[in-house]
Amino acid sequence: MFVCTGAYAALPEFKDIQNILLIRNNIYFLLKDYDTWSRTETSAFLPSPSAKKLQAWMEAIERLKLRVILDTDDAERLILPSRPSSVQALIDEIRTRLKLTFDFRLQFHDPDFDALCNLVEIEQLPSTASVKVVRLVELDRISTSTNDTIILTDSTDSTDTPEHSSQWPEVFIVPTFSYEVEHVLREGNAAYEKDGKLIRLPRDQKHNILETMGDEIYKLKAYPSSTQIGKAAEALVRKHPCLKENNSGTGWEGWKNSLRHKLGNQRKKLAKAGIKDVAVNSGKRSRTNPKGAAPRANIKRPRRGEVNFLPSYPSGETKESLETRRIEMVEEFQRTSAERNIPLIHQHMMRTFALRREEIITTSPPVSELKERWPALFYETQHLPHVFYAALDEYAGQLIGLYKKKKTVGEKMNQLLLAYEKQDKNDIHARRTAALAGLPIYLKEDSSGIFKTCKNEMEFYEGAVALVADVDEEEVPAGVPFSPHQVFIVLEDQVVMTHHSWTDALVCLFGLIYALHLSYPVKCSSFFEFIQIVLLKLDDERKQLKPKLLSLKNELV
User: Fold this and answer.
1) Is 305 left (phi over 0), alpha (psi -120 to 50) or beta?
2) By the 8 A CB rule, do 178 and 186 touch?
3) What pLDDT is stored for residue 190 in this prediction?
4) Helix or strand or coil: residue 70?
5) What are residue 112's phi and psi, to 5 degrees?
6) Phi and psi dihedrals of 17, rounded to 5?
7) Residue 305: is its pLDDT beyond 70?
8) How far apart are CA 400 and CA 419, in angstroms?
9) What are the residues whose beta carbons fall under 8 Å from the beta carbon of 264, sequence distance 6 or more?
10) Can you tell me whether residue 252 is helix, strand or coil?
11) Among residues 488, 377, 466, which one has the least CA distance to residue 369?
């Protein structure tokens, strides 16, 4: 079918409709372009195909015009001749074109919500769009184990830190022992399979097993829980059944006790060698130090599943060299945002992790001093909520469903759900906010001292830990607004960061609690433990879940 689409040089322009396409909810007509020429003798206009114009039109449809946002005051214009096959292909293309040396993910400006959203499928991206480069840090890799303690870009090069390389595994891998011991165990296992005979090891062979097992456990954790030691002992006997104990109900209880004592002795040796995460607890009350603290007083060790709680300095670094790097970062933050050397700051933050943790754990300085000495900890791009949101989006619908089903949640929950019903159901930010805001109410905790609102940003903020949202409304359900002007993160009675999203501010607050080794607010501890254990799966198995948290976790499985 031919249609006349205009005129050029006094001649009409004709196009032939080849196909009708539906692309990302937009209707496109695939037209074949024709050049027109006139035949005077017949008083007619004759169209002829123009293949070059058709090809140019097809290329224009597939071409991507991108505004790549690198920082608050830094963006690049990028035109790609064709749409990449996947999001990862687009990331690779941007990395190559802009010569980026760090790992990142992408967010794009979604016209449906007029806001940034994570780019998951390449089909979501319009032909002309703004995309934001978001650096990948340890939070985004937490599921593959890191040697970091916190949720920020605080990591140390794994080649430089021999301490702890991962979270405690689901199945403990029994290491290989000395050649002599492996031969004895191989023969013993064969005898056990034949007639159920157990073996008794001489002292030196048992010592080799305990020493090797202790080293393997320490690679994972300096202070493993009783449950974790038991799992290691169970794995040992499962792999080498000839080591079972006749007088034990489990068959490995004696091995568990031996490993526990071995680990205690091992920590003493490592403390004398200067290994920081155990040396920090040495020097307690003794004959030579009668005024010291009691041996079990104020033991400093991981509280929330941290991997490298207090690592040693990277090889080749001293306290003085790391302090020089810290000063360089402070000087960078005295520059404007556009002038800062972000790759340098990122590199120095990684290298100085051990110095920063030593300062936070051993001296517990006030937040104001930490903000002055380590400004990058409070810099927005250091906090990435990618994994947090991935987990929250998995559970948000179930949580809101539980809130609606429970009849005893009270008036606060009803107000929150009523406010949520007024929001756009396709707005993922509203769903996330509702799921998190209702959680303290569901767990019967008082969050009023932590989640606050104000109508004037100049009002005084106070609280050891708080999120203060700047709003227009007189009353906000649960103190959590769906559309705040901005949200202030308050630590020790001062604003340390601001955000325009309440959920983003909460992620930053949780990250700062880890980074600064702060305690959870007492009145809202179950709320933060839910984020730690259920959403982020940072559980050191040192204590059992509270019954109400365990019940909620089971509801969500």
Assistant:
1) left
2) no
3) 93
4) strand
5) -65, -35
6) -75, 110
7) no
8) 13
9) none
10) coil
11) 377
User: What SS3 state is found at 394?
Assistant: helix
Q: How many helices (H) and strands (E) does the chain have?
A: 17, 13
Q: pLDDT digit string (tens) for 379-401?
A: 754 445 677 888 888 899 999 99
**What letter would DSSP give residue 161?**
-
The residue behind tokens 């006749």 is 246
Quote the CA–CA distance of 304 and 301 in Å, as a whole number. Answer: 9
CB count, 10 Å around CB of 453?
A: 20
Higher per-residue pLDDT: 435 or 514: 435
236 neighbors 252 (Cβ within 8 angstroms) = yes
Instruction: Count the neighbouring beta carbons within 10 Å of the beta carbon of residue 149.
Output: 28
Rounded to an integer, the average pLDDT of 22-30 is 69
Helix/strand/coil for 65: strand
Query: Measured between alpha carbons, how far is 328 from 482 in angstroms, rounded to an integer?
Result: 39
3-state secondary structure of 548: helix
pLDDT digits (tens, 9 = 90+) for 217-241: 988 888 888 888 999 999 999 999 9
Average pLDDT over residues 462-467: 82
CB-based burial, 42-64: b 16+ in 10 Å, e otherwise:
eeeeebeebeeebeeeeeeeeeb
Please list, in sequence order, all residues whose beta carbon lies within 8 angstroms of the beta carbon of residue 267, skipping any fewer than 6 positions away: 222, 278, 281
Structure tokens at 432: 């996330």
Rounded to 10 degrees, what is the CA torsion of 78, 82, 87, 89?
-90
Answer for the pair 309, 277: CB distance below 8 angstroms, yes or no: yes
What angle in degrees, to the nearest 10, is found between the helix axes of 253-272 and 226-239? 120
- Phi and psi angles of residue 104, each rounded to the nearest 5 degrees, phi first: -155, 165
